[in-house]
Amino acid sequence: MVWLNLLNNEKRNSIARTSINRLGENTISYTNFYWKYLYQNWPVIITNVSNEWECSKSWLTREDYGKDVGKCTKINFDFLKDKIGNRQVPVTHCDKSSKENATQMLFFNYMNNWQNSINNFESSEISRQSGTNVYLKDWHLKAELPNYEFYKVPKYFGSDWLNEYLVDKKNDDYRFVYMGPKNTWTPFHVDVFGSFSWSTNIFGTKKWILLPPGEQVKLLDRYQKLPDEISEESLNKRNVIYFVIYQQENEAIFVPSGWYHQVYNITDTISVNHNWFNAVNIKYIWYNIAGNLRKVIKEINDFREESNFEEQCQAILRADFGLNISDFLDLVCFIAEKRISMNSSMNHDFYTKSNSEIRFLNKTSILNDFHILYDLKTINNLLKVIIQDKIIYKSTDWYEQCLETINLTNKFCEEEMNKE
């Protein structure tokens, strides 16, 4: 069992701002990673992450062809089809001459087409080209097969408020599997909500182009639109600061909040990805939600006199942004109540408590007392900011929900401070 320990606060130890580091797993403590990378919102690559994951073993086959050729790793298409079954999966046609075209496809058809393209390439001199390649992406495989433990959440990403809430409520999630042939790609974008993301390569190589927050404005056209695709050449022409990373098999990349990026599959690839947020970037998520709500209000202001105007705004916000105000406040209050109950469990022989009370998505890590207190202080401070928003202030239900959690976290934090 791993403690997610924040007792040794080293926020002042800054990292180099001119490069993206590679770190071996277990070469940096959870505490140092939290403050040096999450808190400072800076990308990093972690190596040797997925060696022991079930998917790294059973989804791939490794054959030794002798000293002149060496070992060769291939995708185990037969195992994947047998284990997962013939279900509908989300796919995107990666034709660079047009916008992304998302649709559904039977898993067996997708895997058969992919396997045939590999076999045809290996038996000919013709290289596989992009243009009609299909990318299986944003696949909620873990939610579809909750008992299939095919990966483990790396300890550095164990504090995941978003998926902790959604999985508990059985209300969607932001845990994904990506599978795609060489030359499939993801357009230029920033992650949902302005969240963090992490992505671990199970197989293959990806090329990432990442822009620090604010650099994307240099790419706006006269209509204030960003491009769907970027290149190093186009970025150089606009004097954009950017980083290029080639992510290899068994490596995880941490993508911070607000970093626009584009991803190319240099080879056939399989990866596991999460979007997530926690105490570090929760205020940033709130400002994004509040800002998007005001855009919605402005866009449909002609309907302000209708009796259900506020409900319409919240429905549009949820559809466009993924969360509305009620969703966000429910999540924050849920985390506050969960942290207080976790502290109570740990103070009363937590080993006798159920896993759901004290453990996280990776099922092997728990928070220490300081981490729990830090989360609760962050929520307390955030809600004190939120109740000053006139939209929240005018809503009796939202305002009272915030006040109730403020009082709850105030009481807890004062009791913990008195213990010290």
Number of strands: 17
Helix content: 25-40%
Number of helices: 14
Strand order of the largest sheet: 2-3-14-11-16-9-8-6-7
Q: Indicate the mean pLDDT.
A: 87
The end-to-end distance, rounded to whole angstroms, is: 26 Å
The biggest beta sheet is recorded as: 9 strands, mixed
Task: Calculate Rg over CA atoms.
Answer: 23 Å
Give the quaternary arrangement of the chains: single chain
Give the overall shape. globular
Structure description:
- This protein is of the alpha+beta class.
- A 9-stranded mixed beta sheet has the order 2-3-14-11-16-9-8-6-7. A 4-stranded antiparallel beta sheet has the order 10-15-12-13, with no helix packed on it.
- The protein has helices at residues 30-38, 54-58, 77-84, 107-122, 141-144, 161-169, 232-237, 282-299, 309-321, 325-346, 355-358, 369-386, 390-393, 396-419; strands at 2-4, 22-24, 44-47, 60-64, 71-75, 88-93, 101-106, 134-139, 175-180, 185-189, 196-203, 206-211, 243-247, 252-255, 260-265, 269-276, 365-367.
- α1 links the parallel β2 (22-24) and β3 (44-47).
- The protein is built from 14 helices and 17 strands.
- It is globular and about 65 Å long.
- 38% of the residues lie in helices and 21% in strands.
